[in-house]
Amino acid sequence: MTCETLRTLGKLMSAKRRELGLTCREVAGRSGISNAYLSALEHGVNPKTGKPSRPSYDKLLQLGRTLGLGGEAYGLAGYDAPEEVSERTSRGTTLRDIQWEGLLNSYTDELRKALLNIGERRKGEMLEDISILVEKYRPETSYQ
Question: Relative to the CA of 124, which of 43, 52, 101, 131 has its CA 20 to 30 Å away?
Answer without folding.
Answer: 101
